[in-house]
Structures are given as structure tokens and as C-alpha cells.
């Protein structure tokens, strides 16, 4: 015998899915976006937010999200490499995290379906960070080896 969803569940979902389908799909919380940004960079925070946009049916906002994340990444990398005495990496992490947290709260706090979904554990964000670290280190090693040939 199928269980009927609680009142108001169907109105909060992006599509007219049943309550079981909505409960099985999970989102990353806003603090998880901050943790991903702190550990990985704005790119990891954008990856986590990208998943939430897809689940909530708002994939059209991905371009704005990735533009913000890549812009933050390039700006902080440029400042820390051109003026390492003035702009240390530790000082530039705080504005990155704050910008991504404010953007995540802006995007997800009042969205339909946000409360209807479950949340992933923050340990999953750690796995995303490790994969991103592996990609970044591989890229740096490949570029170093490539530049040493010239």
C-alpha cells in the first residue's frame, strides 16, 4: 500500500515527484559549501553548489556560479603570487569562504524544495577535496615537467 506524501511536500519539490523520490535525493548544506571552499578552493565549493542546482532544477545558474568561482580562484592566486609578502594565502582564504557562503545562502535559503531534501554528510566534502587536490597536484606536476623541457 503506497504511503501518501505529507501535505505541502509536492509544492516544495522542483518537479512533481513522490515523497520517497524527494527523500532519497540529497543536497549539500550551506556549511558544507563553506567547508569545501575552505579545504579545496572556490572550485570545490562550486562543485558542491553545482550538485544542489541540478537537484533543485536550477541548472541554468551554473554559468554564474562557475564564473564567480573561477574569478575568485584566479584573483586570489594572482594576488598571492604577485605580492606574497602583502597577501598571504592564509589571509585570502577568509574572503573566498565568506563570498561562497554568502552566495550559497543567497541561492538556497528561500528556494523551493530546499527543506524537502535530505543532506549529505560533511565527510563527503572531504572526499571531494581529496579528488580536487589530486587533480591540482597532477596538473602542477605535469606543467612543471613540461616547462622543464624548454
UniProtKB/TrEMBL annotation:
Membrane-spanning residues: 32-53, 65-83, 89-108, 128-149
Source superkingdom: Bacteria
Keyword Transmembrane helix attributed: yes
Keywords of the record: Membrane, Transmembrane, Transmembrane helix
Protein name: Uncharacterized protein
Species: Pseudomonas segetis
Amino acid at each position: 500500500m503506497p504511503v501518501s506524501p505529507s501535505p505541502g511536500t509536492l509544492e516544495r519539490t522542483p518537479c512533481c515527484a513522490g515523497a520517497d523520490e524527494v527523500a532519497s535525493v540529497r543536497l549539500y548544506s550551506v556549511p558544507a559549501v563553506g567547508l569545501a571552499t575552505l579545504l579545496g578552493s572556490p572550485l570545490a565549493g562550486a562543485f558542491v553548489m553545482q550538485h544542489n542546482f541540478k537537484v533543485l532544477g536550477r541548472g541554468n545558474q551554473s554559468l554564474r556560479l562557475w564564473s564567480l568561482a573561477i574569478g575568485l580562484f584566479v584573483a586570489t592566486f594572482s594576488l598571492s603570487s604577485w605580492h606574497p609578502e602583502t597577501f598571504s594565502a592564509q589571509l585570502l582564504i577568509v574572503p573566498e569562504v565568506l563570498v561562497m557562503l554568502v552566495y550559497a545562502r543567497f541561492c538556497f535559503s528561500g528556494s523551493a524544495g530546499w527543506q524537502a531534501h535530505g543532506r549529505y554528510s560533511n565527510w563527503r566534502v572531504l572526499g571531494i577535496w581529496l579528488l580536487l587536490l589530486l587533480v591540482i597536484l597532477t596538473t602542477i606536476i605535469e606543467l612543471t615537467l613540461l616547462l622543464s623541457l624548454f
